[in-house]
Amino acid sequence: MNPLYAAMPTTIFETMSARARASGAINLGQGFPDSGWPDDVLDTAAAALRHGYNQYPPMSGTPELRAAIAAHYAHHQGVTLDPASEITVTSGATEALAAALLALIDRGDEVVLFQPLYDAYLPLVLRAGGVPRLVRLSPPHWQFDAAALAHAFTPRTKVVLINNPLNPSASTFDRASLELLAGFVAERGAVLIADEVWEHVVFDGARHVSVLEIPALRDCSVKIGSAGKIFALTGWKVGWMCAAPHLTSVLARAHQFLTFTTPPNLQAGVAMGLGKDKGWFAAMRAGFQRSRDRLAAGLVAGGYTLLPSAGTWFMSIDLAASGIPHDDVTAADRLLAAGVATIPNSAFYAEDAVTTTLRLCFAKADATLDAAIAKMVAALPGLRG
Ligand code: PMP
Ligand code: GLN
Asked: Is 333 helix (H, G, I), strand (E, B) or coil?
């Protein structure tokens, strides 16, 4: 057996969802919405299933979805992509991450990563033979500076992996940060993989800046997107990689022996959805922002201290500032016993980091959020003891 997998626990998301199901707890752990998806996207996929979209589509994705992705980013981010040579449709962002890391890393290559990091990153980098170089980001701003990058980059740096907006810190990197990073990427001739699955879920009037909008990064970056996040359909697992032709041709080789293709009827639904007008995306964001504010207001009124959330479906409790003297794993166990599942943020660190923040998913109906608030506020005195 491969020792990496043999020694690995089940992901925290699966674990906490299973515990929530078993105990009947309200699940604010794993990130999935319980409402808010567009019916016309579902109808389009359902109709496609009945109208011949059932055999292997082209390996890089259906022409209609690749055209829709290109048109979408032209419209929303001012980025020009050639659907034929710069887009590869994958089975979710997870497959895109795996394909990109397998395609770009050779044994011994150094990979710069920023933590907290999404839990799939490190195992994928290590299995691909990469040597991780970690930059630790700190609350409340979760930003890097030139000194941190200078420490992480070496002549052996081949790949950089960034997540923007960042799960679980719910923070974003702005254009100036991306331009700073671009200087280091260019100096080392590295490739930047940008996991931008949360690109549309940004709040308070902010606008996401894609790496493809930065001229110095346009042709040395792989941008990863996911329909699961854009349309609140996490089970669909439709994602994509956007990159210059010389990168895309190699990415497609890795993709062809992972999943090869992605269900064509789902691609039809996503293609339709990406063409929605800007008003739909603004309303989607506003809906999640309202949910964020509802959960935050209830928890703060009940005595919790929270870290800010500028994007994603997540925000975190600051345990120490909330008067809870436990680490995140202990606090998550206690809250589960009180009827609410959460995610301890230590799952997003490479080392055996003890963290004192707990992630909550607010992409839920008002009644679900209100019930969770009531249970969490009632549990707070016990958590403090
Ligand atoms: N990257 C990040 C940062 C994520 O948060 C997620 C899912 N929450 C993924 C990748 C995986 O996306 P998908 O379900 O499309 O594989
Ligand atoms: N990305 C989701 C989250 O952050 C979980 C995805 C998964 O369960 N693999 O909650």
From this structure: helix
Give yes or no for a cis peptide into 168 (omega within 30° of 0).
yes
**Run of H or E including 111:** strand 110-115
* Pair 113, 190: CB distance under 8 Å: no
What whole-number distance in Å separates Cα of residue 108 and Cα of residue 282? 44
pTM score > 0.70 for this model?
Answer: yes
Positions in the chain whose pLDDT score sits under 50? none
Could you tell me the domains of the chain? 3-30+279-383 (3.90.1150.10), 39-276 (3.40.640.10)
SS3 76: helix
Ligand 2 site-directed mutation target among 14, 21, 30, 117, most atoms within 8 Å of CB? 30
- Ligand 1 center–CA 266 separation, angstroms: 17
Interatomic CA distance for residues 5 and 57, integer angstroms: 32
CA dihedral 127, 151, 248, 176 (to 10 degrees): 140
Give the Cα separation of 87 and 298 in Å (integer).
43
Rounded CA gap, 240 and 91, in Å? 8
Q: Which residues, at least 6 apart from 366, have a Cβ–Cβ distance to it below 8 Å?
A: 291, 294
Task: Note every long-range contact of 3-8, with CB atoms under 8 Å and residues 24 or more positions apart, other chains counting.
Answer: 4/123, 4/126, 4/127, 5/123, 8/123
C-alpha pair distances (Å), 4 with each of 95, 110, 117, 122, 291: 18, 18, 18, 11, 38
* Nearest one of 250, 198, 251, 206 to 225, comparing CA atoms: 198
Give the ligand at the shortest distance from the Cα of 228: 1
Cα-to-centroid distance, 333 and ligand 2 (Å): 19
- Using CB atoms within 10 Å of the CB of residue 201, give its burial: 0 to 12 exposed, 13 to 18 middle, 19+ buried: buried
Residue nearest to atom 9 of ligand 2 (CA): 13
Q: Which one of the ligands is nearest to 241 CA?
A: 1
